[in-house]
Design goal:
It contains 15 helices and nine strands. It folds into two domains: about 240 residues, Malonyl-Coenzyme A Acyl Carrier Protein, domain 2; about 60 residues, Malonyl-CoA ACP transacylase, ACP-binding (Alpha-Beta Plaits, 2-Layer Sandwich). Strands 5-2-4-3-7 form a five-stranded mixed beta sheet. The chain is an alpha/beta fold and about 325 residues long.
Length: about 325
């Protein structure tokens, strides 16, 4: 599973970068591909010593490509250890990571797509924001005044959805939710992804995406935006999965209908692993594993029991293939 914008932070994956040659080599190769596009070394930006590694890492030109690079590098490390996926799931910008991992896009084309998206957003779209709300969706109907001027951009699990809007609108919703003692969290993103506010870049982005080399994915490529539907990358599809709201809850329901799986979160924060756990029924036989975490346990996760079921399944691809 490949997560989206907002899961990033400085030093993400640093323990793997220091300890795992495959991961380090992949990140450095990605960094060299990106250098002429973003004007700096991504590896140096992420992993150089910092007085405050918890400083905001939210410029889209860097954070979007960085998420793609990290998830691709984790996938390469897992493959080197014999863990081959039966399917890859993408969430938001993670749809680009997933397309590269599944072979539907080359690494260079995937990174170029992430950079061009960021360039267009920064040049043409006023900054906005996204807010995770810890409440059931019924609150949207019960208190429409609180949510005026925003759009639901993701349904993650029954008591967790995300709003997108202008910075002013998001701040107003935060205040309204605080009055009603409803939990929420601002995401570290500068734009209102998955909302009409990014619509103006659609034509220009698709024109760029049309120049990329699309290939038949080597494995099932599943879109969280399309609610579990399989994806074949194209300019229209890639723009659509960034513009339309994510339905992660429905996606997990669809995948669970295929039988038990091991869900492996390649993202830097373990966000999707948490979302899956809240979506699984009590009778589900599926397993959930995080890889990279903000607490620096990626090396232990790679060595621990969590990934052993993946190895067993990889030897029998038919067991959990959709």
């Amino acid at each position: 599973m490949c997560s989206g914008q907002g899961s990033q932070y400085y030093h993400m994956g640093k323990d793997l970068y220091d300890a795992e040659p495959v991961f380090r080599g992949t990140m450095d190769s990605c960094s060299e591909i990106l250098r002429p596009m973003i004007g700096l070394s991504l590896s140096e930006l992420l992993y150089r010593p910092r007085a405050d590694r918890f400083a905001a890492f939210d410029r889209t030109l860097y954070s979007g490509p960085a998420i793609c690079c990290l998830q691709y590098a984790v996938a390469q490390l897992l493959r080197a250890r014999g863990c081959a996926p039966d399917a890859v799931l993408g969430y938001s910008i993670g749809e680009v990571s997933a397309a590269v991992i599944a072979g539907g896009l080359t690494l260079a084309d995937g990174l170029e797509a992430a950079v061009r998206l960021a360039e267009l957003l920064e040049a043409r779209i006023p900054e906005g924001g996204m807010l995770a709300v810890l409440a059931r969706p019924e609150i949207l109907r019960a208190r429409p005044d609180v949510f005026a001027g925003t759009w639901v951009s993701a349904w993650n699990f029954p008591a967790h959805f995300v709003l997108s809007g202008t910075g002013h609108a998001i701040a107003r919703v935060e205040q309204g939710l605080a009055v009603h003692q409803i939990g929420c969290q601002r995401l570290p993103v500068r734009f209102a992804f998955h909302s009409p506010l990014i619509e103006p870049i659609g034509e220009a982005l698709m024109a760029h995406l049309a120049r990329l080399d699309y290939r038949q994915p080597r494995m099932a490529l599943i879109s969280a935006t399309l609610g579990g539907d399989r994806l074949e990358p194209s300019p229209e599809i890639l723009w659509g999965v960034l513009r339309q709201p994510v339905d992660f809850a429905r996606t997990v329901q669809v995948i669970e209908g295929w039988g038990p799986h091991t869900y492996v979160d390649l993202g830097p924060s373990g966000t999707l692993a948490t979302f899956v756990k809240y979506n699984l029924s009590a009778s589900s036989e599926s397993r959930v594993a995080s890889t990279v975490t903000p607490f620096g346990r990626a090396v232990q996760n790679m060595e621990g029991d969590l990934l052993r079921p993946v190895r067993r399944q990889a030897a029998d691809p038919g067991r959990s293939s959709p």
